[in-house]
Specification:
CATH superfamily of the largest domain: P-loop containing nucleotide triphosphate hydrolases
CATH class of the largest domain: Alpha Beta
Strand order of the largest sheet: 11-9-10-17-19-18
Structural class: alpha/beta
Distance between the termini: 71 Å
Number of domains: 2
Radius of gyration: 27 Å
Largest sheet: 6 strands, mixed
Number of helices: 10
């Protein structure tokens, strides 16, 4: 099961310009605690001493009701409830509506190595934003070996054996204004809505290995407009060396797919040989996919017209 630390959770928030509108009250306490789900829990019953169904391993959200009750418990000096609550290894506590928990609550949280933060957001907004922020982190993942690029807004995974020309085709695509997401290895995640999202490799980033030249940093070589960090996967293209004995699809009537994370992605196999401009072929494939998504299939339209013409000629011959 995927997990992230509280530190990574807060970093994701920082990367989104404090998307959760939070402020940490416990400094560096509990940053190594692990979160294993984008689902949250509101510990209302636990504050009353009922822990049987307490889902303590989730992010704990203290809304207006829970937050005000925590203040009441502190005022009545019922700190034993806090002590009992923090026996459970909660990863993090979040108070919404900018409710500040009492000092006694914070001291016990620190003693038990639990991070406490406050947010100006409403509770419902906080729950929704946490799911939005962490969905990719907890999604099912798959790592592919290839190059992931964006061509005319289409996310394309380029596969092929070493030396077939993936890097050369990618460099030409970038020189024509298209963008690199990741080279060599690409991590794909399946989101709740079924989309497959590919992300840059955090170690390799936007570097590419080009034989004869070495490693080049595309972000510095071609500028920030030549890269992006993530993109939906729309098309898989496999490059292979031309084989005269193989019959290649000339019409495109058969629509093949490539299975990634139990999702069928449109798939093309493009043969490579001297004289074929792979960059133009990839661009054409991207445009053609967009046409299909808009309801126009060139191959099927041509085939339909041919059948109509053949039928018309047969009718004319019978007259």
């Amino acid at each position: 099961m995927p997990k992230i630390t509280v530190e990574k959770f807060l970093k994701l928030n920082e990367n989104r310009n404090n998307f959760l509108k939070v402020k940490c009250l416990t400094d560096s306490i509990g940053l190594t605690n692990e979160i294993n789900s984008s689902e949250v829990n509101r510990p209302g019953m636990a504050l009353f001493g009922y822990f049987k169904d307490f889902v303590f391993e989730r992010i704990q959200i203290f809304g207006k009701g829970e937050g005000n009750y925590v203040l009441t418990l502190a005022e009545e000096n019922k700190l034993d409830i806090f002590e009992e609550l923090f026996k459970y290894k909660m990863p993090i506590c979040i108070f919404t509506y900018n409710l500040i928990p009492p000092e006694s609550f914070l001291e016990i949280a620190k003693k038990n190595n639990v991070c406490v933060i406050i947010s100006e957001l409403k509770t419902a907004d906080m729950v929704r934003n946490i799911e939005n922020l962490t969905e990719e982190e907890f999604a099912e993942s798959f790592t592919a070996h290839g190059v992931f690029v964006e061509v005319f807004g289409v996310g394309i995974l380029i596969l092929g054996k070493s030396g077939v020309g993936k890097s050369e085709a990618t460099l030409e695509l970038i020189s024509k204004g298209h963008r690199l997401i990741s080279d060599d290895t690409v991590e794909f995640k399946k989101l709740n809505d079924g989309r497959i999202i590919g992300r840059k490799n955090e170690f390799i980033k936007h570097n590419m290995e080009v034989r004869g030249i070495g490693v080049v940093d595309i972000s510095r070589l071609s500028g920030m407009s030549a890269i992006r960090d993530r993109k939906r996967l729309d098309l898989v293209i496999e490059l292979e060396s031309w084989n005269d004995d193989e019959q290649y699809d000339r019409m495109g009537l058969e629509e093949k797919t490539y299975n990634i994370l139990e999702t069928e992605i449109p798939y093309l196999k493009i043969p490579v040989r001297a004289g074929r401009n792979i960059c133009i072929l990839i661009e054409t494939a991207a445009k053609n996919l967009r046409l299909k998504e808009m309801g126009y299939n060139s191959a099927k339209e041509l085939n339909k017209n041919l059948i109509t013409q053949i039928g018309k000629k047969k009718s004319d011959n019978l007259i």
